[in-house]
């Protein structure tokens, strides 16, 4: 089970880009997010910052295994903005990310092919300036055991590279820890071979 995929790529912080075409200006920003609530908060912030812009088109992708994604054209012709932005997120292989492209209309229509090119290019500009990071998927456990098992439990946790989050060492001990998903199955098996312990996923 060590070949379990337990990491994905995201961005370390905000990054920005800009693209101009026929007097229209496209301002782009890539933002790390982990929930739809964070997406909403960031969209509201950008709409307030660029209140005089014509469009705020965006796409986001959340999670790893059960991915959630959306794209929005915000008044531009259907498929001309949100999808090209989302396509750039996919091309870099990122998740837990929101990309917003804010357009200031310059007076000349670009046509749908022109819009697709502009939104795709602007999104790519922000992603090209981003710091890409690897995010590790962790599984959290709680193990309850008698004090005399402490050394054995701690040895397993150390050997498997687990990180202890909380521990209570009295006559009945409890340790909360998390571990890389790729190591979780092996660790769970080793723990369950021990007598008189209770292991559960949190």
Question: Could you explain the architecture of this structure?
Answer:
The chain is of the alpha+beta class and 202 residues long. It folds into two domains: 7-135, Impact, N-terminal domain (Ribosomal Protein S5, domain 2), CATH 3.30.230; 137-201, Alpha-Beta Plaits, CATH 3.30.70. It is built from five helices and eleven strands, in the order βββαββαβαββαββαβ. Strands 2-3-6-4-5 form a five-stranded antiparallel β-sheet, with helices on both faces. Strands 9-10-8-11 form a four-stranded antiparallel β-sheet. α4 runs antiparallel to α5 (181-192). The longest helix has 18 residues, at 111-128. It is elongated, with a radius of gyration of 23 Å. The protein starts with 6 loop residues before the first strand and ends with a strand.
CATH topology description of the largest domain: Ribosomal Protein S5, domain 2
Largest sheet: 5 strands, antiparallel
The CATH superfamily name of the largest domain is: Impact, N-terminal domain
Q: What would CATH call the architecture of the largest domain?
A: 2-Layer Sandwich
Number of strands: 11
Mean pLDDT: 92
**What is the strand arrangement across the widest sheet?**
2-3-6-4-5
């Amino acid at each position: 089970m060590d070949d379990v995929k337990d990491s994905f790529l995201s961005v370390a912080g905000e990054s920005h880009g800009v693209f101009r075409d026929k007097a229209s200006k496209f301002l782009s920003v890539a933002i790390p997010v982990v929930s739809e609530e964070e997406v909403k908060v960031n969209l509201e912030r950008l709409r307030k910052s660029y209140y005089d812009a014509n469009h705020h088109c965006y796409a986001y992708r959340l999670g790893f295994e059960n991915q959630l994604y959306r794209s929005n054209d915000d008044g531009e012709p259907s498929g001309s903005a949100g999808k090209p932005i989302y396509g750039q997120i996919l091309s870099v292989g990122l998740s837990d990310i929101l990309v917003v492209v804010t357009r200031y209309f310059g007076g000349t229509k670009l046509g749908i092919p022109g819009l697709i090119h502009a939104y795709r290019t602007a999104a790519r500009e922000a992603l090209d300036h981003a710091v890409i990071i690897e995010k590790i998927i962790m599984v959290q456990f709680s193990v309850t055991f008698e004090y005399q098992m402490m050394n054995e439990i701690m040895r397993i946790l150390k050997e498997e590279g687990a990180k202890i989050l909380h521990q209570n060492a009295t006559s009945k001990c409890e340790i909360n820890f998390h571990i890389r998903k790729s190591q979780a199955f092996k660790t769970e098996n080793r723990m369950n071979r021990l007598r008189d312990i209770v292991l559960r996923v949190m």
